[in-house]
Amino acid sequence: MKINWYPGHMKKTKELLKKNLKLIDIVFELLDARIPISSKNPEIDKIIGNKPRIVILNKADLSNKDINTKWIEYFNSKNIPIVLTNAANNKGIDKIIKKSNEIMKDRIEALRKKGIKNKPIRSMIVGIPNVGKSTLINALAGKKRAKTGNKPGVTKGKQWIKLRGNLELLDTPGILWPKFDDERVGLNLAFTGAIKDEIIDTETLALRLIERLIEISPEKLENRYNVEISDKTGLQVLDDIAVKRGCIVSGGEVDYTRVAHLILDEFRKGIIGKITLEEPNQIEGTF
Q1: Name one GO cellular component term (predicted).
Q2: How are strands ordered across the β-sheet holding 82-84?
Q3: Predicted structure pTM score
Q4: Is 174 annotated in some ligand binding site?
Q5: How far apart are CA 249 and CA 14, in angstroms?
Q6: I need a surface site. Which of 130, 227, 230, 266 has the fewest CB within 10 A?
Q7: Where does the chain show beta strands of DSSP type E?
Q8: Which domain holds residue 210?
């Protein structure tokens, strides 16, 4: 599957990030807890440089708890502050505020000595589309301030938003890189909905997801769909799921479009189970 998606506003966002970074005290790098490697934009480190940052693994409620622990240990070993969140349910939000104030403690004290009190900590949140940025912003603000949507790229433009805990936020749209040299990265992004379904073959995508789940979590497929996995190909399992769920058209043929949407939707909502597609031991090179 070839995936190439780089809307024009993403290029503008990259330029916006560079332009406004001098206004920022701390960067929130938002990743998807299910795919921390694939959801990291490799250009972000170059853009933010040595700015203080907090890595936020969002949608942690959808990911494997044991692997979440491995990711916490990994980032701690790199001395990178990390917080796990489920922004939709406001979980982990207070930890972000607390950690931000801890990291900015020296700056706050230096300003206090100059007679400057309660100056907001200015932050920027960066992340790929559909990783939950708008939901996180609304949770940090304590009310609905940013537009949200279930399609990637719904947040556009520049907004300064007042947050809780003496924080201000420069919101930016999510950005992806122009192409995916690693097909596995592109697939992971597509599996989780970071790439619009309209530009990919959803039937093939669902099949590839089934093949991946057979590899890492076969028991979850068996439990959710009451199918036998052993010694079967991904297509055979997909066909079995279609039969179990009544995704059949006249003549007894499988309705692949219908079963594909069902499987992708249930994976993205965590209905199949709490599944993480990437672990720290899969990191290649720098991260």
Answers
A1: cytoplasm
A2: 82-84, 53-58, 26-32, 121-126, 167-171, 159-163
A3: 0.88
A4: yes
A5: 46
A6: 230
A7: 26-32, 53-58, 82-84, 121-126, 159-163, 167-171
A8: 201-268
In this structure, the answer to whether residues 76 and 159 fall within a common structural domain is yes
Span 210-261, pLDDT tens digits: 999 999 999 999 999 999 999 999 999 999 999 999 999 988 899 999 999 9
Ligand-binding annotation for 86, yes or no, is no
59 annotated as belonging to a binding site for a ligand: yes
Burial class (CB in 10 A: 0-12, 13-18, 19+), 119: middle
58 is in an annotated binding site: yes
Phi/psi at 91 (nearest 5 deg)?
A: -85, 130
Q: Residue 82's domain is classified under what CATH number?
A: 3.40.50.300
SS3 217: coil
Please check if 92 is assigned to a binding site: no
Which position has the token pair 């003549």? 251
**Assigned domain for 68 exists:** yes
132 marked ligand binding residue: yes
Q: Are the C-beta atoms of 283 and 35 separated by less than 8 Å?
A: no
Residue with structure tokens 């853009």?
47
| Co-location of 256 and 137 in the same domain | no
Q: Are 148 and 193 in contact (CB under 8 A)?
A: no
Residue 60 marked as a ligand binder: yes
